[in-house]
Design a protein that fits this description.
- This protein is α+β, with helices and mostly antiparallel strands.
- It has two domains: 36 residues; 137 residues, Nucleoside Triphosphate Pyrophosphohydrolase (Alpha-Beta Complex).
- Helices cover 20% and strands 44% of the residues.
- The chain contains four helices and ten strands, in the order βββββββαβββααα.
- The chain has a four-stranded mixed β-sheet with strand order 7-4-9-8, sandwiched between helices. It has a three-stranded antiparallel β-sheet with strand order 1-2-3, with no helix packed on it. Strands 6-5-10 form a three-stranded antiparallel β-sheet.
- Strand 5 and strand 6 form a beta hairpin.
- Helix 2 crosses helix 3.
- The protein starts with 9 loop residues before the first strand and ends in a 6-residue tail after the last helix.
- The mean pLDDT is 92.
Length: 190
């Protein structure tokens, strides 16, 4: 099935409402297909990456951190924003090492997706990181506090299946990575 690349709304005006360090908020006035005008609130953010670090024994290395927006502490894969002109791949390697102390020597891209397309400009690229080298070089931002957690991949997969993981990037990477992991790591339990 082919889909037409049709634009149903035309932007007629943009207004900046807020500019912060991480995000900007704009309101857009759009012309709807029936000619009426509508308003859209858009959050502009930098693109981000996330990586599931997988060692040769089939263990994954995660982070547990508090997320103020939802007032919960979550178990997540390492993730962060692209800096300057670095590629998504470079950012994934950097973020993994900064948050876990493990530097993946190989990264396999799983997907790039719009993580909140209804109101945000941000895209997230997910990777699986393998051939891990432990450098111990954890380098967190000055306001970033997290705990590293290691477990067998199959335990994380079960946690996702049991609805015990709330973070979308971790859920998606865990589920999408299963076939790659099953082919490449012999110690993974089905």
């Amino acid at each position: 099935m082919k889909f037409k690349n049709t634009v149903f709304e035309k932007i007629v005006n943009r207004k900046s409402v807020f500019q912060g360090k991480y995000l900007a908020l704009q309101t857009l006035v759009v012309k709807l297909p029936d000619g009426r005008l509508g308003e859209r609130e858009i959050v502009r953010v930098k693109d981000a990456v996330a990586v599931l670090p997988l060692d040769n024994d089939g263990n994954v290395h995660l982070v547990r951190q508090y997320r103020a927006a939802i007032d919960k502490t979550l178990l997540e894969i390492p993730a962060g924003l692209l800096n300057g002109d670095e590629s998504a791949r470079q950012a994934a390697v950097r973020e993994c090492e900064e948050e876990t102390g493990y530097r993946p020597r190989a990264v396999t891209k799983l997907i790039t997706y719009a993580h909140a397309e209804g109101y945000s400009t941000g895209f997230m690229t997910l990777y699986i990181g393998t051939d891990l080298e432990y450098t111990g070089r954890i380098h967190l931002d000055s306001t970033e506090f997290l705990e590293t957690v290691s477990m067998p991949y199959h335990e994380l997969f079960n946690m996702v299946q049991e609805n015990r993981i709330m973070d979308s990037k971790t859920i998606l990477c865990t589920l999408m990575g299963k076939s790659f992991i099953m082919k490449n790591v012999r110690t993974i339990e089905p």
